[in-house]
Structures are given as C-alpha cells and as structure tokens.
Design brief:
- By secondary structure, this protein is an alpha/beta fold.
- The chain folds into two domains: 284 residues, 3-Layer(aba) Sandwich (Aminopeptidase), CATH 3.40.630.10; 127 residues, Aminopeptidase i, Domain 2.
- It contains ten helices and 20 strands.
- A nine-stranded mixed β-sheet has the order 1-2-3-13-4-14-18-16-17, with helices on both faces.
- Helix 8 links the parallel strand 16 and strand 17.
- The longest helix is centred in the middle third of the chain and has 20 residues.
- The protein starts with 7 loop residues before the first helix and ends with a helix.
- The structure holds zinc ion.
- Zinc ion binds next to helix 5.
C-alpha cells in the first residue's frame, strides 16, 4: 500500500460522510439524517410543543435545525456547557411559488437563488428535487419531506458558437433569465404542472398541497477521487462535513459518557447560515438559547446558574475553511498556506468575522494535541474581505467563548466541492477530544 493512501479507518469515516451527504439533499434532510444517527446512539427525540426534558440524551428538530445534548443526572454549581455548532444549509436554487414557465416550446421552472452559489457550477448537471411540502389533511396541516433523485431537471449552458467571447471575457449569468431549468417539451400545449408533480410525489391531492420549500440538487453520487484516493468529491461539503463530524463525535462521546461529569455537551445544527441566520431556527435567533434554558430549568437549575454555565463554557463553531487553491495561490495569505489533508483549521480574524480569541483558540489547539492531529491556522489576505459564519452570532447570543474551526476544502459554494479524506476523521477526533 502506498503510504499516501488513507488507512481503513480514515476511509471508513470519509465513506460515512458520503453516506450522510447523499442522504441529505436539503437542510430538512440534514436534520433528519443527524437525528437518525443520534437515535442509534440512544438519544431520544423531544418536541418543541411538549414539556422540555432535562439532562440525559435528547434531541429536538425544528425544520432544518437540530439541537442535541447529553448531560449529567444532576447539575452542580460547576456544570458548564461544551457546545459544537454547524450549519445545515448550502447555497442552491429554489423553486418559486408559481414556477411553471413555457418558453420556445420548452417547459421550465422558475427558480430563486438561495445564498451565494457559484452559479456556473449548476449548469449542464443532471438535477433532482428535494425539500418539504405542507399538505392539508383531516387532522390539520402536515409537513412531508420529499426527495427525487431522478435526473429531472437541467440548466443548459449557451453553446460557445453563440457566445464566442466567453473564454476570454468570462461567463455572466442573469439570475432571472439564464437559470431556469427545463424538464419537458410541450410545444404549445399547457406546460407541465409542478404542483401536480409534487402532489403525486408526496401522495397528496393537488388541492391539498398548500405550499412547498423545494430546491434543486445534483444527482451524481459523491465519491472518493484522486491518484491515491485522498479526496472526497461531493456536493454540500460546506457545511455537512461539520454537521456529520459534530453529531458522530457527540454520538461516540455519549456512548462513553460518564453521567457524573460536570459538563452538558451540546451539538447545534442551524439552518439559514447562508442567508444571514436571522430566522426562527437560525443562529441569530433565540432557538438555541431557549432550548438550552428550558432544558436547564427542567433539570432543576436556575437562570443564574444557566447564564454562569454559558459564560464559563466553550463553543466550537465548525464551518469549512478555504484550502489554498494551487491555481490561484495569489488569492491566499502566503504565510498561512492551508492544505487538504493537513488537519483541522483554526480560523481567526482581527475584526471578529470569526469569534476566535486567544483563550478560545487555546481550547482548540489543546483539543487537536490531545487527538494527535495536526492543526492549521487560517487568516485571509489583508487586502481580501473575510467571510463569516455562525461563530460570532452564537458567541454574541449566548455570551459563550467561541472558537471558529473547520476542515479545509476547495471550490466552496460550487454544486460539487472537494475536501480531503484524512480531514474527516481528524476533525471528528479533534471534536471528540474537545468534548472530553
Ligand atoms: Zn459554511
């Protein structure tokens, strides 16, 4: 075996990530896939409407978001929170409320752009559909998840003969005009009805289909690629890689957890990060804080103790980091080269676009050392703006010290991204060491 080649365990973690991503084309599916993984590790599902359970192993799903926790039987004056956060959503194209369009004899669907995808990466791919539908029934309105992995849709690029300057001047896409996927030819007849199609897919009458949150996804399966099989080629690596490693680390931790330990370990997966996180289930809202406080009170703690446990706790905000792209080395800070398969990345920014400060960074450095994995430190070039993530929001909402970390990847926000096989198990191990 070539020594560059990942070991069996490293491969197994990457294959598990691939299974997680391929099962999760929408944020709602991410929350359900994560919940199923935790349920297999003994977590029970609580509902937002019922009385909140105290400590123990619990999870709660709200739309595309999830909070899961494991804590000691009894809270003490020293109990603190250890929290890992990540986001479930990825940039994509979403179906409009009245999507049926007919142009030049072709049936198309109107789409909106969600977040900031690399628009060109959605062209000339075989695309499926997923999301959730609100359906009226005798007992009220129910929400049904759906996923169609058939290659239903296609957004064809204009042929080069009709746009000869594209390779010298670049591709400009108008979001209204150039992104509508086609799915049938009707040539003058009524265009195909999206509502009728979706109603059939969720086994409902079309008049009972009240609304949908529907989005496109590439149907090509994820896979391991490269000369030494060192890379994962997949959609939505940002940020399902972090979601998968967080819940699998928590599941493993819970199996070995000592019920007398003085920490409540939490994983929070948020929807809507790609559009700013302001929503009833996003990181800028009260969702996580209200779940944690209700849990704390249900476990016979008081509010003063809850606030103290946050301030004395620590949060790891996990979101993917930019690896240095070898074709665009000049876009990266030269003294902070980030390699695929180089280990977890610690992200910092002087203007707190990442929440990291020296004490919180130290927690992550020590976690990586305990896990025996290498660490990389990321900062952007001083003349290029810095992205942000849920770290600063979580930190500000809960007053919990927070460090921003992540696995490195290339082609962030492409419909097909790339990360390192070794980085999956390394991030898992570092998160596991952080929880211990
Ligand atoms: Zn992200």
């Amino acid at each position: 075996m070539n020594e560059q080649q990942p070991t069996e365990d490293e491969n197994a973690a990457a294959q598990d990530l691939i299974g997680f991503i391929d099962a999760s084309p929408s944020p709602y599916h991410v929350a359900e896939t994560a919940a199923a993984l935790l349920e297999r590790a003994g977590f029970k599902r609580a509902s937002a409407e019922a009385a909140m359970p105290g400590t123990g192993r619990w999870l709660i799903v709200r739309g595309g978001s999830l909070v899961a926790w494991v804590g000691p039987d009894k809270l003490s004056a020293k109990t603190t929170f250890r929290l890992i956060g990540a986001h479930t959503d990825s940039p994509n194209l979403r179906i409009k409320p009245q999507p049926d369009v007919q142009r030049a004899g072709m049936d198309q669907l109107g789409v909106e752009v969600y977040g900031s995808p690399l628009l060109n990466s959605w062209l000339d791919r075989d695309l499926g559909l997923s999301g959730r539908a609100a359906v009226a029934g005798p007992d009220g309105v129910s929400t049904r998840l759906f996923r169609i992995d058939e290659p239903l849709l296609r957004i064809p690029q204009l042929a080069i003969h009709l746009d000869p300057s594209i390779n010298s001047e670049g591709l400009l896409l108008n979001r209204q005009q150039h992104l509508a996927p086609l799915w049938a030819t009707s040539d003058g007849a009524m265009p195909a009805s999206f509502a009728a199609f979706l109603a059939a897919a969720v086994s409902a009458r079309v008049e009972d289909l009240l609304a949908w949150d529907a989005m496109l996804h590439p149907v090509e399966p994820s896979r391991i690629v490269g000369l030494h099989r060192q890379f994962v080629s997949a959609p939505r690596i940002d940020n399902q890689l972090s979601c998968f490693t967080a819940v699998s680390a928590l599941a493993k931790f819970a199996e070995a957890a000592d019920n007398a330990a003085d920490t409540v370990s939490v994983v929070a997966l948020f929807d809507h990060e790609e559009i700013g996180s302001t929503s009833h289930s996003g990181a800028a809202g009260t969702f996580l804080g209200s779940v944690l406080e209700r849990m704390w009170l249900a476990a016979d703690g008081d509010r003063a103790g809850y606030l103290r446990a946050l301030v004395e706790g620590c949060c790891v905000s996990a979101d993917c980091a930019h690896a240095t792209n070898p074709n665009y080395v000049d876009r990266h800070e030269p003294e902070h080269r980030i390699a695929l398969n180089g280990g977890p990345v610690l992200k910092s920014n002087a203007n707190l676009r990442y929440a990291t400060d020296a004490p919180s960074a130290a927690r992550w450095v020590q976690a990586c050392r305990r896990a025996g994995v290498p660490l990389q430190r990321f900062v952007t070039r001083s003349d290029i703006g810095c992205g942000s993530t849920i770290g600063p929001l979580t930190s500000a909402q809960l007053a919990i010290p927070t460090v921003d970390v992540g696995a490195s990847q290339l082609a962030m926000h492409s419909a097909r991204e790339l990360c390192g096989v070794l980085d999956v198990s390394a991030l898992q191990a570092a998160m596991g060491a952080f929880l211990l």
